[in-house]
Amino acid sequence: MGGAASQAIELAASGDTAKLTSLVTKNPGGVSKAREDFDTSALHHAAGGGHAEIVTLLVERVPGLAILYDSMGNSALHYAAEYGNDATMAILLQVPCVNEDLLVSLDKRKSLR
Fold first, then answer.
1. Cβ neighbourhood burial of 38 (10 Å; 0-12, 13-18, 19+)
2. What whole-number distance in Å separates Cα of residue 72 and Cα of residue 52?
3. Positions of the chain with pLDDT lower than 50, given as ranges
4. What is the CATH number of the domain that holds 26?
């Protein structure tokens, strides 16, 4: 991974909204293809890190990221829930492509704890 892809992950994880906005505007395809270890996306990192503004930016500009799963079967919503980021969870739950299967998956995980 290099260029826009690695930069998207780094900016999402660090919470740099201004630079990520510029990158998404210039290269939304590069952002949508960005994957890191365990197949995580920029949205996974932003959701897990509690970066609500970046989560909003990504789901508005690259909504398909909301239904991507990492290599362990976790979506960005799972990351937000795992790290207790209520604001990013609320944003993701408003995305039309986040479906009931994700919510069922979260319920099953909670019942196993």
1. exposed
2. 23
3. 1, 112-113
4. 1.25.40.20
